[in-house]
Write a structure and sequence with these properties.
It is built from 10 helices and 11 strands. With 283 residues, it is an alpha/beta fold. The chain binds NADPH dihydro-nicotinamide-adenine-dinucleotide phosphate. Pfam families: THF_DHG_CYH, THF_DHG_CYH_C.
Length: 283
């Protein structure tokens, strides 16, 4: 049976480090600040935003919440972002996605100052990541890298297969693995013979959004398997993109769902906010 990579425990350790880092900064007169902007009433987004607020409070980070109605115009949202860009108490700005249809998501993300873009979605930060000089790394992929690090998985020379090429997970995690000297294959819906490609992998990272798609007989014995997928089955049950029962019989280590990558995403948001505040403190 594979070792279970405990995302909750890794996240708790990191959050304690972040809390200590925040305390140190506060002793020097700088309080890290995160602005969270929510537009509209999407129930899942509301839950994420309240989780982020709670996590900030626990870490000692000042959180500045802006809950705007679904009718908010693009212009007034851009106005708020301009204001937050100038606000010296704010080190990070997070706009909860998705935005209502009448607002151009790309325009909004590009309006955030790259030096406060703690989600790492601004093209400037995407470019810095791609050129090997990151300022902010996107939170979920960064969490994946921290998990690999915490189980002592050195990627140098390893075959990493990433399944999924989205801008928020697949592509950035592939770039991060490349920067860590892995040989990276990035797969997607047009990849031919996906099981055969996955069989080459020393490390598999699944970010597809298809319940239990990756099966045990796709896995090289001993491989490390990171499951980013979160899929709801019925009312309550959450499963990943990996068929945990069969894959855990062959893998060397595996993340569960829930309790794997999930708890790392908000943790890395706090981490990025603290780093941004540390830059402010250095001046
Ligand atoms: P997207 O829907 O944006 O991207 C999915 C990717 O999977 C696409 O690149 C798509 O290919 C590829 N894909 C779809 N079907 C197949 C297939 N049959 N074979 C191979 N590739 C396929 O998803 P996200 O990246 O946003 O999210 C992926 C998963 O991760 C979801 O379950 C999401 O809920 C979860 N997630 C979890 C987070 C966390 O905090 N734990 C954070 C973010 C996401 P193509 O490009 O060709 O269409």
């Amino acid at each position: 049976m594979a070792e279970i990579i405990d995302g909750k425990a890794i996240a708790a350790r990191l959050r304690e480090e972040i809390r200590q880092g925040t305390e140190q900064l506060k002793a020097g007169g700088v309080t890290p600040g995160l602005a969270v902007v929510l537009v509209g009433e999407d129930p899942a987004s509301k839950v994420y935003v309240s989780m982020k607020e709670r996590a900030c409070a626990e870490a000692g980070i000042y959180s500045d919440e802006h809950k705007l109605s679904a009718e908010t115009s693009e212009e007034s949202l851009l106005g708020l972002i301009a204001q937050l860009n100038e606000d010296e108490r704010i080190d990070g700005i997070l706009v909860q996605l998705p935005l209502p249809e009448h607002i151009d998501e790309r325009k909004v993300l590009e309006a955030i100052s790259p030096s406060k873009d703690v989600d790492g979605f601004h093209p400037y930060n995407v470019g810095r990541l791609a050129t090997g000089n990151p300022l902010f790394r996107p939170c979920t992929p960064y969490g994946v890298m921290k998990m690999l690090e915490s189980v002592g998985c050195d990627l140098t020379g390893k075959e990493v297969v990433v399944v999924g090429r989205s801008n928020i997970v697949g592509k950035p995690v592939a770039l991060m693995c490349l920067a860590a000297h892995a040989t990276v294959t990035l797969c997607h819906s047009r990849t031919r013979d996906l099981p055969e490609v996955v069989r080459r992998a020393d490390v598999v990272i699944a970010a597809v959004g298809r319940p239990q798609m990756i099966k045990g007989d796709w896995i090289k014995p001993g491989a490390v398997v990171i499951d980013v997928g979160v899929n709801r089955i019925g009312e309550k049950k959450l499963v990943g993109d990996v068929d945990f029962a069969s894959v855990s019989e062959r893998a060397g280590a595996i993340t569960p769902v829930p309790g794997g990558v999930g708890p790392m995403t908000i943790t890395m948001l706090l981490y990025n906010t603290l780093e941004s505040a540390q830059r402010r403190a250095r001046g």
